[in-house]
Amino acid sequence: MIDNNNLSGEDKSKIIGIESNYIVEDSNGDKYPIFTTNSNSCYIIKTSQKTGKQYKYFLPIEVYVIINEESKHNKE
Question: What CA–CA distance (Å, rounded) separates 17 from 27?
Answer without folding.
Answer: 24
